[in-house]
Amino acid sequence: MAGVLEIHDLRKSFDAAKVINGFSLDVTELTLQCLVGPNGAGKTTTIDLISGRQKPTSGSVIFRGDDITGLSEHEIARRGIGRKFQVPAVFRELTVHQNLEVAYSRETRVFRNMFHFTVPGCAERLEQVAVEVGLKDRLSVMAGTLSHGETQWLEIGMVLMQNPSLLLFDEPVAGMTEHEIGKTIEMLNELKKNHTIIVVEHDMGFVRQIADIVTVMHMGQLLAQGSISDIEKDERVREVYLGAEEEHA
Amino acid sequence: MAAMEKNIYHNKALQWGVYAVFFIALAIIPLVQDDAFILNQFATYGVYGMLALSISLCWGFGGILNLGQGIAFGLGAYGMAMTMQMQSQDPDINPIPPFMLNNALEELPFFWEPFWNTSAGIFLALLVPTLFYVIFGGLMFQARVAGPFFAIMTLAILSALATLFIDLQPYTNGVNGISPPGALDLGFVVVDPYSSVSYWTVFVLLLVSTVCAKLLTQSRFGLVVQALKNDSERVRFLGYHVAFYETAVYAVSGLIAALAGCCWAFLTQYVSPAQFDVGFSISMVIWAAIGGRNSLIWAIMGAFMVQGAQSYVGDEFLNSWVLILGLFFILVVRFLPGGFAGLTESLLGALSTGGRRRGGDVPVDVSKAGTEGA
Q: Which of A127, B128, B193, B331 is deepest in the core (most CB within 10 A)?
């Protein structure tokens, strides 16, 4: 299957601290890849480097054959990479409907948007996405009044409105209740049929239920990669990561 | 879910209805009032209204606090005054304005030349400030200067411009400013400041700019702008070039302020560096804050209320007026953060939901019409 995203020898340092230290990754079409690792492993920084929030010190990010290393956020977004933030970022003073409308970013030119009140296709897509993320009855509600779980779903919905070919989800179930996590797992398993997805996650229980491939990061480097059962058997992974999880329990 | 109660404050049709009533009321004034002085004063309020409108668009909708709106206002006013000044000069007999002769200039400066032509002069009076906003805003927003830092930059530029116009005495007549001897002659009509013509001119310009601004806030552009006020980072990751949007909304607000400057010049037949006064630019922000920056029409009414009170009550208090205004401003910020617009919104909200909210579980609801007010 065709490669969607290739990361080659990515490095990022903040002053003396090397946060990403020669990380490489291949993402194939229509897979859900989980990026796991202990705190400070560089998971979110990797997402930042892919989506353009930060510029790498060296290395390259290739998306569908094009080098997108160091492009700005909006350029990367326009090429078809959508991102959900760790702390859900929605427009709190706008309604759920308006949030999704803004996210339908087919037309990004300033003057075009000054003279248009609607974009063709937006209403249909909005209807569809609202059902997918379970917010159909909440469209006229102010986003700031949604529950935490609903806010997470709204942001997932916004990323879907954008219709990217690669979705980056940074801890999509953080702070959710058991029930909400269950619904999100269903949502992600549905999404991965048509989308390529990278999910950053801490919770191995959650990872088990969604991942096709698990990539373990440690100290800014690739530690191991494989199916969830391979990873759970891996001695080094147990040592740095799963062991730590058991200690907490 | 049961049909949710809607706050009629957010009803789009009703909002336009309020706009219609507001402008009809303004249109009745010259029909019942023929005192030229009063009409001129009301026209001046219209200019203040335009300025408050421009602040509401940029600050209330775009989230860009701008303490230097006097930049566009002053540049527009000077452009119009230069146009009017050149109307009273004769290319053959006396091509040079008297104040330049007093300052020992023997030739008309090159940048005054285009103002021989009235249309070109008015065009420049609007173009120069707008272009200034595009360049200055573009530089700032591209570098992601935002919030209070941007506000301070606008203040700095405003003060610098005031100093510049004072220092360029031979070209601008310094502190004395420019006082064109005649009223603005548009060819088909003379805009005598003490007549209903000038009132109607300001009325039409205020109406057009308000309707355009309102439509702009309802467009896709307006939606994106309101989104970036909430979270500009998020907008960026959706694929929008945030700096372009910020520059555009800032420049449109500059254009409206420049238009207000032009009106000011033909209404008073006088411009001076006082138009670049920092205090004046800050009062524009106070008008919008008291009226309610999230509502275009309330911002305009805020300007009417504050300036009206200053004219009719302020005289009684003389120097203590500024203190009273300051106290009132603090009270509004503390108890009515949304200004009178916010107060209206919550009153109408309480009215339209009635006592039905007692059950507790009714979510706050607004229609998809928009978060801006009537």
A: B193
Chain B residue closest in CA terms to A99:
B227
Instruction: State how far the Cα of A217 lies from the Cα of A231, in Å rounded to an integer.
Output: 12
| Record: contact A89-B221, CB cut-off 8 A | no
Q: How do the domains of chain B map onto residue ranges?
A: 8-353
DSSP string covering A128-197: HHHHHTT-GGGTTBBGGGS-HHHHHHHHHHHHHHH--SEEEEESTTTT--HHHHHHHHHHHHHHTTT-EE
- Give the residue on B whose Cα is nearest the Cα of A115: B219
CA-based nearest distance B202→chain A, Å: 25
Domains in chain A, number: 1
Annotate B349-370 with b (16+ C-beta within 10 A) or e (fewer): beebbeeeeeeeeeeebbbebb
Question: Does the CB of A152 have a partner CB in chain B at under 8 Å?
Answer: no
Q: State the distance between the two ends of chain B, measured CA to CA, in whole angstroms.
A: 27
ipTM at complex level: 0.91
DSSP B198-222: HHHHHHHHHHHHHHHHHHHHHSHHH
Tokens standing for residue B301: 């009414």
* Cross-chain Cβ contact B248/A114 below 8 Å: yes
Closest CA of chain B from A191, distance in Å: 19
CATH number of A171's domain:
3.40.50.300
Q: The tokens of A239 are what? A: 């040592």
Tell me the pLDDT of chain B (374 aa) as tens digits. 333 447 888 888 899 999 999 999 999 999 998 899 999 999 999 999 999 999 999 999 999 999 999 999 999 999 999 999 999 999 898 899 999 999 988 899 999 999 999 999 999 999 999 999 999 999 999 999 999 999 999 999 999 999 999 999 999 999 999 999 999 999 999 999 998 999 999 999 999 999 999 999 999 999 999 999 999 999 999 999 999 999 999 999 999 999 999 999 999 999 999 999 999 999 999 999 999 999 999 999 999 999 998 888 777 777 788 888 888 889 988 899 899 999 999 999 888 776 444 443 434 444 433 344 43
Structural domain that includes position A104: 3-248
Strands A196-200 and A32-36: parallel
Which residues, numbered 48 to 77 in chain A, qualify as contacts with chain B under a Cβ-Cβ cut-off of 8 Å?
Answer: 51, 53, 72-74, 77
Contacts of A218-227 with CB under 8 Å at 24 or more apart are: A218/A37, A218/A38, A218/A41, A219/A21, A219/A41, A219/A42, A220/A12, A220/A18, A220/A19, A220/A20, A220/A21, A220/A22, A220/A23, A220/A41, A220/A42, A220/A45, A221/A21, A221/A22, A221/A23, A222/A23, A222/A24, A222/A25, A223/A37
